[in-house]
Amino acid sequence: MKLDEITMYTDGACRGNPGPGGWGALLIFGATEKEISGGEDDTTNNRMELMAAIQGLNQLKRGCRVSLHTDSKYVLDGITKWLPGWKKRNWKTAGKKPVKNRDLWELLDEAVQPHDVEWIWVKGHAGHDGNERADELANQGLSNWLCE
Q: Could you give the CA distance from residue 34 to residue 105 in angstroms, rounded to a whole number?
């Protein structure tokens, strides 16, 4: 069975770190685009980057082939390099410390399971249209959160 192909751009934003934050995701399926965003009161940029990927993947109703673009090396390296070791070591880093943001890493690990995800790093704030829009959505999520 051929999987639907989705292009996704995700980003997080924080005013202060920690501080109020926002996340945004742009999902593209053929000519259809869907934009989502949200925010939290007291968070970090890394948590918002993770939330953007989690929320974006959770929008998909069935297994898809996803090209997920992120400007976060933290998210990219975490999901592609560090996660298997963390799980093997019962959520401890190589230095035997508890993994930060474990709750969100577990949610992201669960969210990727039904999909074939290609993780792609893009340089942030470098004029890449999809990444720039995800950044706008993350800042919109932050602004909306602050105004509620």
A: 24
Question: How far is the first Cα of the chain from the last one, in angstroms, to the nearest whole number?
Answer: 44
pTM over cut 0.85: yes
Tokens 């959770």 sit on residue: 58
Q: Is 71 a catalytic site residue?
A: yes
Catalytic residue among 21, 22, 49, 141: 49
- Count of CB atoms within 10 A of residue 40's CB? 19
Residue 98 tokens, joined: 């508890």
- The predicted pLDDT at position 128 comes to 84
**Catalytic position from the list 103, 116, 118, 125:** 125
Examine the residue annotation and report whether 129 is marked as an active-site residue of this protein: no
Is residue 135 part of the annotated active site? The answer reads yes
Catalytic (active site) residue 11: yes
Question: Pick the catalytic residue: 38, 130, 135, 141?
Answer: 135
Helix (H) or strand (E) holding 133: helix 129-147
Amino acid occupying residue 15 = R
Average pLDDT per run of 10 along the chain, which is 148 residues long? 92 93 97 96 96 98 97 97 96 96 98 97 88 94 73
Write down the pLDDT at residue 147: 63
Q: Does 77 qualify as catalytic in the annotation?
A: no
